[in-house]
């Protein structure tokens, strides 16, 4: 009897011990957390757009739970939730205060801290408060980098990387807009260093984009040598990058303009270098320096045919041929550009809006050149396909005037091409 | 207490611990994912290309008197700036500011509704030309080239759910939360080589 009493006492003691010790080690009284978990879950169902009244009611419920919550992690989750509710109700000032307060507390769990700095940064950027945004994004980078590099087999590494890279892009874009090219370059270089450290290459798609952007910032800042070095490396290392072919040609144009035209101002970057090169030869009597560039461009066109880069390169090629007086070859090149079926559902040519515009101008220019040759039938075919444009645009207006012009010329000067 | 008698006690102890821990896991699972926002890198593609800009004529004068005519070529700049309902206005404004840098010499950034780059009428006007139209079937025509600067881009605002596993998911909302922009401006308009042409009929 005594023994049984003793055993039942032990049993009771062990159960009591388990009930007392385990919640202490976990830091959560069961009854308390059960309620605490349900309230944030209920607020999650509110959706993305919420009214101020809905927000106030949800926040009041969360604050009530928060007052009794003794789990540190859960308490921060609830406070973070309050911040997101403020943001969804467009109460940005309250949201920012909430996130800043959470992020700056020493015992804040790291993921919540990074997310809070991210939210504070994003909101500040949207409001145009660049200084605050830059500071907050800097903290995102600092804390996420510590976690990514400091903790082995960190299950939250992918999300921390995503937030970190997003913060670095945001910082670089802010600096770019402020024309602080040196600071923008530093951000992209930091991003590239971090992307290079990720052996799994989870975000490797950002590498060519960041390299492209950093090369542009060097050029805009006046460091042409560094621009050429990075751009050339990029086009070799990432041949699949959608701008790889264009980058190769832009680099050639920049090199030529720097040496021949003593032109070293590229305040907008390299995208206007091809038109500046063509303009140079339009105004120059000596066309011979254009020959090696033309040959190189012809090779690039073949290398990148049926891609976005190929369309743009072929279009520049056609204009350069036209400028150099090689009219028949130019007409052929314009025909190639306009024959690419970008609207085909299987077409992967992106950005398609730009490729479509290029192809349409190629058709009109070809029509003009055929008409100059007196080949009115083919000229009308080329211009006619664009006259059916529904919207009023430069292309549709131009196509109409070119079409009318060809009709008149065919009627009045049919033998023009033979003169 | 014998070892045998300890076994049921330990079993009960383990079950109790398990029950408490399981309850705690259930609570974690009940917690919603951590939501945060991400603004993807702004996608903006800029190109500058030579384009046929304007064509006038051939104008034929069949009267006996010569005529003096003038022509003022004008090219309309265009801005097409939109945003999805779920895309915050501020994100759309950011996109406009980012794009405007490439067109600041031709087109000012004029905001409407706090976010939209809009303008009622903006033309890139170039030097007008005058030409003599000869009498008795005199014929005249001209053609212009210009540089078109075209920017096409988007800003993509996303809500992200961070799951307890550490993975993250882009929230699938009804519509995409994007703002799109397309801006076209013209510059450097010049008469095409070989023009103006004075033709004889």
Describe this structure in words.
The complex is a heterodimer of chains A (419) and B (201). By secondary structure, chain A is an all-alpha fold. Among the domains of chain A are: 205-284, no CATH class; 309-413, Serine Threonine Protein Phosphatase 5, Tetratricopeptide repeat (Alpha Horseshoe). Chain A has 19 helices and no strands. The longest helix of chain A is centred in the N-terminal third of the chain and has 25 residues, at 2-26. In chain A, 47% of the residues are buried. The model of chain A is unreliable at 1-9 and 11-34 (pLDDT under 50). By secondary structure, chain B is of the alpha+beta class. Chain B has 2 domains: 1-31; 33-200, no CATH class. Helix content of chain B is 20%, strand content 48%. Chain B contains 2 helices and 13 strands. The longest helix of chain B is centred in the N-terminal third of the chain and has 28 residues, at 3-30. At the A-B interface, helix 1, helix 2, helix 4, helix 6 and helix 8 of A face helix 1, strand 1, strand 2, helix 2 and strand 10 of B.
Please give the radius of gyration of chain A in angstroms.
Answer: 32 Å
What name does the CATH topology of the domain at 309-413 in chain A carry?
A: Serine Threonine Protein Phosphatase 5, Tetratricopeptide repeat
Rg on CA atoms of chain B, Å: 34 Å
What's the overall average pLDDT of chain B, rounded?
Answer: 80
Largest interface: A-B, 91 and 80 residues
Structural class of chain A: mainly alpha
Whole-number tally of structural domains of chain B: 2
For the report, how would you describe the main beta sheet of chain A?
Answer: none
Residues in helix, % of chain A: over 70%
């Amino acid at each position: 009897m005594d023994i049984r009493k003793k055993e039942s006492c032990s049993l009771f003691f062990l159960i009591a011990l388990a009930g007392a010790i385990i919640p202490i080690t976990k830091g959560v009284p069961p009854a308390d957390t059960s309620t605490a978990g349900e309230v944030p879950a209920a607020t999650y169902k509110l959706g993305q757009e919420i009214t101020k009244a809905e927000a106030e009611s949800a926040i009041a419920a969360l604050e009530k739970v928060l007052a009794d919550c003794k789990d540190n992690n859960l308490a921060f989750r609830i406070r973070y939730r309050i911040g997101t509710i403020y943001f969804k109700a467009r109460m940005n000032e309250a949201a920012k205060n909430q996130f800043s307060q959470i992020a700056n507390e020493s015992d804040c769990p790291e993921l919540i801290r990074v997310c809070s700095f991210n939210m504070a940064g994003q909101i500040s950027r949207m409001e145009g408060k660049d200084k605050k945004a830059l500071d907050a994004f800097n903290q995102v980078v600092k804390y996420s980098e510590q976690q990514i590099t400091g903790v082995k087999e960190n299950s939250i590494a992918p999300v921390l990387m995503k937030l970190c890279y997003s913060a670095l892009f945001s910082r670089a874009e802010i600096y770019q807009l402020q024309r602080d090219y040196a600071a923008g370059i530093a951000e992209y270089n930091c991003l590239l260093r971090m992307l290079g450290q990720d052996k799994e290459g989870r975000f490797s798609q950002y590498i060519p984009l960041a390299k492209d952007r950093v090369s542009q910032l060097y050029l805009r800042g006046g460091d042409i040598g560094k621009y050429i070095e990075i751009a050339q490396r990029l086009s070799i290392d990432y041949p699949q990058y959608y701008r790889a072919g264009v980058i190769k040609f832009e680099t050639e144009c920049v090199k030529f303009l720097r040496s021949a035209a003593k032109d070293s101002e590229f305040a907008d970057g390299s995208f206007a270098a091809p038109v500046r090169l063509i303009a140079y030869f339009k105004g120059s009597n000596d066309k011979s320096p254009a020959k090696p560039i033309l040959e190189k461009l012809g090779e690039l066109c073949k290398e990148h045919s049926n891609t976005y880069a190929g369309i743009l390169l072929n279009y520049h090629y056609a204009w350069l041929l036209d400028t150099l007086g090689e009219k028949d070859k130019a007409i052929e090149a314009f025909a190639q550009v306009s024959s690419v079926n970008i609207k085909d559902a299987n077409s992967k040519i992106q950005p398609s809006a730009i490729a479509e515009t290029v192809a349409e101008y190629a058709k009109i220019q070809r029509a003009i050149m055929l008409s100059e040759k007196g080949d009115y039938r083919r000229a009308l075919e080329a211009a006619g396909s664009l006259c059916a444009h529904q919207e009023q645009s430069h292309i549709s207006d131009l196509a109409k005037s070119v079409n009318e012009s060809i009709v008149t010329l065919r009627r009045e000067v049919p033998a023009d091409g033979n003169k | 207490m014998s070892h045998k008698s300890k076994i049921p006690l330990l079993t009960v102890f383990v079950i109790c611990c398990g029950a408490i821990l399981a309850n705690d896991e259930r609570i974690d699972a009940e917690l919603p994912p951590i939501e945060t926002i991400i603004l993807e890198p702004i996608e903006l593609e800029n190109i500058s290309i030579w384009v046929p800009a304007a064509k006038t004529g051939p104008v034929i004068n069949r009267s006996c008197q010569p005529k003096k005519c003038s022509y003022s070529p004008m090219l309309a700049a265009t801005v097409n700036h939109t945003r999805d309902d779920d895309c915050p206005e501020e994100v759309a404004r950011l996109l406009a500011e980012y794009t405007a840098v490439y067109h600041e010499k031709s087109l000012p950034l004029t905001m409407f509704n706090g976010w939209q780059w809009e303008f009622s009428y903006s033309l890139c006007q170039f030097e007008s030309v005058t030409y003599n139209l000869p009498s008795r079937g005199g014929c005249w025509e001209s053609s212009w080239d210009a540089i078109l600067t075209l920017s096409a881009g988007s800003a993509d605002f996303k809500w992200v759910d961070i799951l307890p596993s550490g993975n993250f998911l882009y929230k699938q909302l009804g519509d995409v939360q994007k703002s799109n922009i397309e801006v076209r401006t013209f510059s450097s308009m010049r008469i095409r080589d070989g023009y103006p042409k004075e033709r004889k009929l």
